[in-house]
Amino acid sequence: MNRLILPLILPSLVAGAYAELSLEPLGTARNGDPASLFDASAAEIVKFDSATNQMYVVNGSADALDIFDVSTPTAPSLVRSVDLSELGNPNSVDVFSRGHRTRVAVAVGAPSKADRGHVVFLNGEGDLLDTVEVGYLPDMLTFNENGTMVVVANEGEPTDDYAVDPEGSISIIRIRGNRYHHREITFGGLTADDVEGVRISGPEGTTIAQDLEPEYVAISGQHAFVTCQENNAVIKINLTERRIAAVLPLGTIDHSKLGHALDVSDKDDAIRIANWPIQGLFMPDGIAAYRARDGRRTQTYFVTANEGDAREWGDYTDEARIKSLNLDPSAFPLAETLQLDAHLGRLAAITTEGDIDGDGDYDELYSFGTRSFSIFDENGTLVFDSGDLLETYIATHYPEDFNGAHDESDSFDSRSDAKGPEPETVTLGEIDGHTYAFIALERFSGIAVFDITNPHSVTMSGFGLNRDFSVSFDEDHLENFGAAGDLGPEGLDFVSAKDSPTGQPLLIVANEVSGTTTLYQISVTE
C-alpha cells in the first residue's frame, strides 16, 4: 500500500550536540500466559526496592500486587502475588526503604466507586502491616522523600451510570513508627474565584468538589503537585500545613502556531502533520517534579505528560467529532471543507468548550491533550513544551507504524483522530549530573527521553521501543501475541546506578496491554 508521507523536518530541539541515551531491554516479567494477559491491565504501575532487589507490580487483572525478584535483571522471577481483591481494585504502588526495612503502600479502590477506598501497607515480603481508609477511588500515591508521609490522589470518579458522583480529595497519611495518621484535604470550601481558569464542566448540578478529580501526585520538598486531568489543572499542596496552596490552571496550546502541528485524521491514509485552528487542553495524566537552576537560584519545576481524557459516564459525554458540531460561520467561514474526514472532521473535540457567545454554535474548537510533554514552574507558568516533536519523531523514524494502536497490529494512523501517540506518564532520573525525563507513549508503546537539566534548554536524548510491529495480532487472534513485545506503557520507575543490581542505571516499564514489565539498562554516550 502506498501511503502519503509529507516532508518532515525535526525541530531544532533534537539538533546539535547532546548526550545520547540508549535503552537496552534486559529481561521481562509477566504473571500468566501472554494471550490471557491481553489488555487485562496485568501490569500497570511498578516500583523497585533496592533493599530487597524486588519490584512490585500492580496487577489489575488479578486485583493483586505481584512481587518479582530482579536480583538477576535478565531473568525476573515471581516471588509472590498478594491478593487484594477483598478490598477492591489496586491502582498504584510505592515503596520506601530505610536500611533493611521496606514499607510498601498500595492504593486500592473499593468495588463500588460510591464507597471509600483504602491504602494498604505491606512489608517487603508482602505481609500486611495496616490498612487506612482514604477518599473515593484512590488512583495514585507516593511517599515523600524521607518516607514519613504518603500523599494520595482520590479521584472521586462518578459511578458508571452517573448515579453517584463522589467528591475528589487528597489524602495525607503521616507515618510514625507503626502508626498511621490520616488527614483528608477536601474541596468543599473552594469558591469560583479559587478555581478561576480551571475547567469545571460536569453536568448541571455538579459541585466544584465533585468536578475536581485528582489523578497523579509528585512531591518536591514541602509541596505536592497533583494533576486533575479532566480539569486541566494542577493542585499545589503545602505538606507542612496540609492545605491547598493554589489551584493552577494550565491553559491551552494553540495548534495553529508553528511547532504545535498535529495529524488529525485517521481516514486520509497519510502522515499529515499540519497546523489547524484548534486549541489543545494539556490535561496531563502523569506528573513528576524536580529542582533546577534558574539563573542564580534553584527552584521547583513540574513535568507533565499531556495525555488528555474525555468524560463518559452513563448517558453523559463531553466528546464528539468535529464534523458533528455546528460551527459559527463567522469564526469558521470554510467550515464545510474544515469538517471533511480528511481534514478536521474526524478529530475528537471537547463539547463543553468553545461556545463563547452562548448562541449554540462553536466559535472556537478544543481538543483533548496536546500530544506533548511540558515543564512548568511551581506557580504553573509554562517554561517548555515539546510541541509536535513526539509525533514528528515517530513519523520520521517509524513511518509505517505512525500513530498506531497498542491493541492491534497494522494500525497505521488509527490514533490520529484521537490523541496520537498519547503521552501517558513521566518519570525522572539523574545520571552523571544530568536530569532526564522519560516519557511513556501509551498508544505507540515507546519511551522518549529528554535531558531537562536546564528546563529552558531541553534536548532529546533517546528513544526506546521494545515492540515488534511485524507480529500480527488483534483481540480475536492472539496466538502470536507474546512475540509482539511491550504494549501500552502505563508505569515507569527509574533506578539509579547506586541502587541498581547491575551497577548501571535502569528504567523499569509496566505495560498494561501486554501485561509485561521490562527492565532496561540505560547507557549514555557523549
TrEMBL record:
Matches recorded under Pfam families: choice_anch_I
SUPFAM superfamilies for the chain: YVTN repeat-like/Quinoprotein amine dehydrogenase
Annotated region (Disordered), positions in chain: 405-424
Record-linked InterPro entries: Choice_anch_I, Mesenchyme-surface_protein, Quino_amine_DH_bsu, WD40/YVTN_repeat-like_dom_sf
Signal sequence annotation: 1-19
Species, as recorded: Haloferula luteola
The entry's keywords: Signal
Protein name: Choice-of-anchor I domain-containing protein
Choice-of-anchor I domain ranges (all copies): 39-522
Biased composition (Basic and acidic residues): 405-422
The UniProt record lists the keyword Metal-binding: no
Highest taxon, organism lineage: Bacteria
